[in-house]
Amino acid sequence: MEQLAYTIHQAADAANISRSLIYKCIGAGLGPRFRKAGNRTILLKEDLEAWLRSLPYARPEDKHPDHDVPTGEEYSFHLRLGNRPGDTEVCR
Fold it and tell me: What is the CATH number of the domain that holds 62?
C-alpha cells in the first residue's frame, strides 16, 4: 500500500534533506503544508511533493523547459544554519 502521509522525520528521509530544514521552513511560513494528528505533525505526500517542486533551481540552466517554476532570489528565502558565516540553505 502506498504511503499517503509522512511524519517530519519520514518526510526528511524521503526528500533526502534534514528535519531541521523542514522545521525551519515551516517556522518561517515557507515550508510544506502540514497537518496535526493529535500531537504528531504530518505532511501529505502531495504537499511534500508540491513544496519540493516549488524550490528554486540551483542554476537557471537546470530548469526543465516544460516546467514553469520561478527561479531567482525573489522567490527564495535564506535561512541561517549554524554559526558560521555563509552557512545557509535556501527555503521556499
Answer: 1.10.1660
